[in-house]
Specification:
- Helices cover 68% and strands 0% of the residues.
- With 188 residues, it is mostly helical.
- The protein has two domains: 109 residues, no CATH class; 65 residues, no CATH class.
- α1 runs antiparallel to α2.
- The N and C termini lie far apart (49 Å).
Length: 188
């Protein structure tokens, strides 16, 4: 699952899914400038998210038709591409680029609706990774590979404890206590 960065599609041996949160964010920006197709698409995607995958599978043909109709209506609503100079490509609007991307990658956009193994968003993975990126931006690096590994393990424990509604401090304390008793047992 990814945010439709073009280079990711070069990985041919995997099934791609596009992050619903990223798409909703882009649709919201189109909605804010008055694009009705974006309102309809956002409503459809959120409705599919709330609906059981089995029910979506039974209604797949209608869902795909509705999805394609919204995009077709969107093309009519978006301004045509403009040429800024004498040469080069015509500049398309952000909305038209989004429509083209959603047409081209329809299966990746809708995968969450039909496959119970695919989540709507990869935001949790991004949140888990964000702290490491902030650390890299502030410190510019880890001093060693071991330091980076330890940091990743600690953040993994913290993230897992939070996901299971466990007290982070108690969890770390119990892990350290368990490791201490194991090392004492091995020493004797």
């Amino acid at each position: 699952m990814h945010d439709s960065y073009a280079s990711y599609f070069n990985f041919l041996s995997i099934i791609h899914a596009l992050c619903g949160a990223h798409i909703i964010r882009e649709l919201t920006s189109q909605e804010e400038i008055g694009r009705q197709w974006a309102v309809k698409m956002k409503t459809l995607l959120l409705k599919l998210k709330a609906t059981d995958e089995e029910q979506n599978m039974n209604n797949r043909e209608n869902i795909v038709k509705h999805y394609q109709q919204i995009l077709t209506d969107g093309i009519q609503e978006e301004p045509p591409p403009e040429r800024k100079g004498k040469r080069g490509r015509e500049k398309k609007s952000k909305g038209l680029n989004l429509i083209i991307r959603m047409q081209t990658n329809m299966d990746a956009v809708l995968l969450y609706a039909f496959d119970p193994e695919v989540p709507f968003t990869n935001n949790q993975a991004e949140r888990d990774f964000r702290f490491s990126k902030v650390k890299m931006n502030v410190s510019h690096c880890f001093r060693s590979t071991d330091g980076a590994t330890h940091h990743a393990r600690i953040m993994s424990v913290i993230s897992t404890a939070r996901k299971h509604n466990m007290n982070v401090f108690d969890t770390i304390k119990n892990i350290l206590k368990a490791n201490h008793s194991v090392s004492l047992h091995q020493a004797s």
